[in-house]
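Reproducibility note. Readers wishing to regenerate the assembly model reported in the main text can use the exact inputs given here. Chain order matters: entities are listed in the order in which they were concatenated for prediction.
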Amino acid sequence: MKEDQARKRVVVEAVTPEIDGGLFPIKRVVGEKVQVEADILVDGHDLLSSVLLYRKEEEKEWSAAVMEPLVNDRWRGFFRVTEIGNYIYTLRAWVDRFKTWRRDLEKRITAGQEVSMNVRMGMQLIEDAIPRCKHEVAKILRQKADQIRGEKNMEKKIALALEEDLAELMSLHAERRFITSYDKELKVIVDREKARFSAWYEMFPRSCADNAGNHGTIKDCEARLPYIAEMGFDVLYLPPIHPIGITHRKGKNNSPEAGPKDPGSPWAIGSDEGGHKSIHPQLGNLQDFQRLLQKARAHGIEMALDLAFQCSPDHPYVKEHPHWFRHRPDGTVQYAENPPKKYEDIYPINFETDQGQELFAELKSVVLFWIEQGVRIFRVDNPHTKPFRFWEWLLAEVKRDYPEVIFLSEAFTRPKVMYRLAKLGFTQSYTYFAWRNTKWEITQYFSELIQSQVREFFRPNLWLNTPDILTEYLQMGGRPAFMARVVLAATLGASYGIYGPAFELCEDRAKEYGSEEYLDSEKYEIRRWNLDDSRSLKEFIARVNRVRRENQALQSDWSLRFHPVENEHLLCYTKNTDDQSNIVLTVVNLDPHHTHGGWLQVPAEELGLEPGQPFQVHDLLSNARFLWHGPRNYVELNPRICPAYVFRLRRRVRTERDFDYFM
Amino acid sequence: MKEDQARKRVVVEAVTPEIDGGLFPIKRVVGEKVQVEADILVDGHDLLSSVLLYRKEEEKEWSAAVMEPLVNDRWRGFFRVTEIGNYIYTLRAWVDRFKTWRRDLEKRITAGQEVSMNVRMGMQLIEDAIPRCKHEVAKILRQKADQIRGEKNMEKKIALALEEDLAELMSLHAERRFITSYDKELKVIVDREKARFSAWYEMFPRSCADNAGNHGTIKDCEARLPYIAEMGFDVLYLPPIHPIGITHRKGKNNSPEAGPKDPGSPWAIGSDEGGHKSIHPQLGNLQDFQRLLQKARAHGIEMALDLAFQCSPDHPYVKEHPHWFRHRPDGTVQYAENPPKKYEDIYPINFETDQGQELFAELKSVVLFWIEQGVRIFRVDNPHTKPFRFWEWLLAEVKRDYPEVIFLSEAFTRPKVMYRLAKLGFTQSYTYFAWRNTKWEITQYFSELIQSQVREFFRPNLWLNTPDILTEYLQMGGRPAFMARVVLAATLGASYGIYGPAFELCEDRAKEYGSEEYLDSEKYEIRRWNLDDSRSLKEFIARVNRVRRENQALQSDWSLRFHPVENEHLLCYTKNTDDQSNIVLTVVNLDPHHTHGGWLQVPAEELGLEPGQPFQVHDLLSNARFLWHGPRNYVELNPRICPAYVFRLRRRVRTERDFDYFM
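Running the prediction on these inputs yields the following structure tokens for the assembly.
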């Protein structure tokens, strides 16, 4: 061992956030804080100093933030990310001799000891510092040293030596020869704000035609934009818009034989008319698509496309790149299956092909093609059936040049696989939310997502339904179930999504009892929806989305806290901004069939509410206002009227007649 | 990215045990298991196989143990360490094509599908395997393939293809081209058994003289050996036996001025008569010491020496190596201090010296010197005041050639520093046990030590007292307090220690109220102890240590579990062997002043006791036997008789008249 190694006496360990030993980045959006903690230790009794260093990945110069000690050798500091892209952070720590000397001198003086020798030792530390400082600082230190030396009165001498500004200067210019650098540089992926806060609407373009029986077009989608914008969604996601295969095309309700007019599943991508870079001719062309992008933007809506890396048997790749597919002993291409289920209208891509380089380049070119059209959001179909390393590579490649791109991972699979995909770089992820219905289930699941380290890399996007998923809760609970669930999704999650118009029209008919498939699923046929149906929740959803936009507390997830209610059917939680200027308390009746009431416990003090003073709760859904006294309050919810309260809490400002809502 | 990287589809993560991302080794003793778990993931639906690889550090060939899947993508395997030294372990995992194919074939058959094509695909997998197998195996596979191909009857053909032995062969010889190797090789330090199970006795040799006023010698220690052996201790630790400095020598009760006859503190090491490699002339010489080592061994006792790397002002190092010390502006050497406290009889070594290389070599030579005399256990004084990297280097250097050496870390300092020292290689560590007296304190502390990852690297040695520490509990509680504490230490900890004869003679006089210092401390004067005092706990301690030797459950820590008792003064816990053939249930009355009784809850089923059947509890301290029915039982302890039960639980073997204690 080199002796200098032993002179690096400080140890930095147990750094948070740090994902899998630094193997994966954490995620933030522009403007957010990165709060870093570490255990920082040294032998003996010396005092330490530590800084958090950070920079944009492509820059060379570090910025520094001071780390402050907490308790039990734990330290904390933070920085704010201000630009999209990647940031790097790490730590430095060192024995701070002057700080130690100063503390000890104070102790000696308190104990009434003679300290002239100790003052001389402090002088020596200042003298030692001078050569390593820039001219300006060296000059000041020289003056200080002379001043202390010149002072004859011991009390005044000591007072000079203990001056705060001297201590600060000395700390800034401490001996760094044996500084400890934390052995890892950790990464932050910084996304734009939509990565954190977004409301998604999924819709089949082919069902958008005005006239019954017609195949909807991209142009028809334009006409639908005001409707979507009025509901308050800001991302419009379209299932694949590419040509659909003929061979083994599926018929209505997933029947193995398609009728002559059946349009097939949009996920059976590719035909003579093209593949992943083409638009299905019945939908329109690239010009139509670009126009839709522009029109959507004008409505505050961003388009998201589907990346489904699989092919119909008629996809051009099948002929042009047979090696990208598995072949069976009889020479035919292996179709998709999950034995004993077969999906003969789909050929999965064989990512273990010997021609991986070409394959990867082509798939990347698909993403770049749509980026060139103006798309910046992709919903990725079944990423868990493609190799992890492929995604790690692809997402890094794309985000290097287009850091503003958002990828949503549609992996409904085992939890650790979902987390792994998020770690590899997916911006947002589908969750199990659709199947979490009871108080216990929701509390457990969101504690895992939002109160554990998972939140550093996994951004939940809470989907209420999808073309594949009509949950039992929605099938059984009627309109109140749809209302309760949309409030939950929109307030538990800063990002959520619905598949419409099925959702807002409360479509609850499943293909059969025990199935989560929709009856007459749009995956296999064109549907016409009556958007003006009296059951429609469009206005309710519009209100919910407006509440989200107007309350910053609902625009991020980390502040989520659950609170006790004495009724198993009532769920209560708050979100708040860091400065507690916006606090939203939501109560949802999870039972869509019966009225429930119960006493809930608001942690008033934690939320910055003055103890013993009344506070106002303002239900942003009904506009009702209540005056609550103390933490314990009664609520009651009739699901047939509205199954939820979304209260804004307003604290007392000066007197009981002077709440801030008067202002 | 190389395409082959993407073909390594399997991911191995969240491996346990793994300390700080593999930066530090775990610890075991010979014969113990290393149970390894990992999350092992792959995209899609393929089945995996995984092996745990392990080897002695100096060997090249890996041994392999099969990893078995648990739930939620978690896998587990284990190996046993059989020799002292270092072991290495890591993991491999791969997509197992044949296993996947076999599972899918079974599913298809269950679903009644036509499978001839699938059988052909399985045949292909066998054919592909042949070229990568050794001749013998290749021959068998060839035969199997021919046999399957030759069989005309499809049912029989399938049965052949699904044969277990074929599956095993194919798994053993699976395609390893795209195998995933876990990216870390993790280390195990394997110690001898005493590292885990030891009973220490600390004693000042100079107080061992037969005649009052005489300075005890190493020879006198010999005479004390039968006494120590009868009490059942197997490590005898002596404070420093080196020459003691004269300058600033401390007098009785730590007075700054020593009288002419005061012997000084043994930790003020070094004088004209020598330093760390010398023996204090009044104690004897090296021959005496070697004789003591031999005699001790004959009594089943191993000697432990103190490594206190610090010097008196008269130590030869001070003249010979002035650069190993800090100097004050007036040219004097800086004495030890923790402002405002001063320790002028001690010069700390300056580990930041420019001459670190020489210093380190010299300190290592001190350890080797005593190893050459036959010492294999060192108690290290205040390791937390020397650099971490020094210990990391020293312990590795010594253990490379002498892996049987045991180092006990005497660091009473902040918890993370204590853990760091253990990670760096200390075999055992002092703990906060002496100050943990209430049920809550003990339960919390031992849960941290024994039920968390801490147990992988930190082996607690529970000291009841030391020459510096006479706890308030012992000062106030009288003889019952000493009895309760020794039972706690000896049954909670597989390793524990006492400083005697102060402990067994229930010495409870502190220097002053509020101090933990002994009155008339042996650190500063020679004491004479009446070993035959009627208060002596020597027989009680002998019984406790016999119980430890006779009950394997008490010889390791990991099985420790606390159980509820409905009385805050009663603490109840069990330890058991892995096979549950030995189960010890201890109940201690923590209140040394009053009798307490309460209902306790024995987790009978967890401990392998037949539910609904009576079981015998045999108090190994009093030899009383009770028959208990069911998990809930009443106990009562009068501290003036005995403050503890140490029950051996004996399960029913056949009938209620046929317990195993009849055998």
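We highlight two features of this model. The mean pLDDT of chain A is 95. The two ends of chain A are 68 Å apart (CA to CA).
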